[in-house]
Amino acid sequence: MTVEASLVLPIFLFAALSILSFNKLILYEEQVQWALARVAREASAEYAAMDKSFVISPAYLTGKMNLYLKGEDLNVSMMRSKFEPETDEMDLIADFEVEAPFPIVFKRHFHFTEQIHTRAFTGVKTRQDGADGDKDAVVYVTKTGSVYHRSLSCAYLKLHISQVSYGELAHLRSESGGKYYECESCCRGTSFDAGDNVFICSYGDRFHSCRTCRNLKRSIREVPLSEAAGRLPCSKCGKE
Questions:
Q1: What is the per-residue pLDDT across 108-150, written as a single tens digit (0 to 9) for each?
Q2: Is the pTM value of this prediction over 0.70?
Q3: Which value, in Å, is the radius of gyration of the alpha carbons in the chain?
């Protein structure tokens, strides 16, 4: 029994420690993902209120990440983060390393990456106070839309982008119940296979071949109702 115990006990201890180490790695990933989501939300909001070049600086993002992970045995780098000024899209990439729990000959580090893709908030264009002095109702319109909205929180104004395969489009419907048709801007002259990835919005009737399509950018303006001539009221908030 002593011989058997001396053989089995090290294996048992190694397995137990391996499980604990694996759980610790999962905890590290969850902490980094939480901090990255917080940095993404703050960077998106700060983009409209602060110096844009400062907000999207990898050094600034790295500092914020390590501030929120203070006290953890982690050193996160955001130097690979990217920003597309044409579409106001942020691709935040967090790289960090974790030391191997059982270094045998030399210390070994495992590299991990967490990533979030978001869009910077660029604000809402509003009329200057007292510019008109009339009592015309205020509505919200988009650059390419054909309707006006009475509520800025209307679900149709919120851009929810999903990635699906082209073959799934025949069975998918938007929140308004309509089919998806190809975008005139990014899908013109493009042939798709069933396995190709395309992008759709919860509300809308177009699918897009790339996430950076200019028609996926939501630009909202506040205008008087008299300037929304030719647009129909939104079926969701237009009658409020």
A1: 777 888 888 887 766 555 544 444 444 468 888 876 677 888 8
A2: no
A3: 25
Helix/strand number for the chain, H first, E second: 3, 11
The residue with tokens 């071949």 is 209
Given CA atoms 41, 44, 46, 49 in this order, what sign does their dihedral have?
negative
Three-state secondary structure of 22-74:
HHHHHHHHHHHHHHHHHHHHHHHHHHHHCCHHHHCCHHHHHHHHHHHCCCCCC
AA identity, residue 14: F
Token pair, residue 69, equals 């992970």
- Residue whose structure tokens are 């013109």: 188
Q: Report the alpha-carbon distance of residue 129 to residue 124 in Å, rounded.
A: 14
CA-based torsion, 181, 186, 192, 198: positive or negative: negative
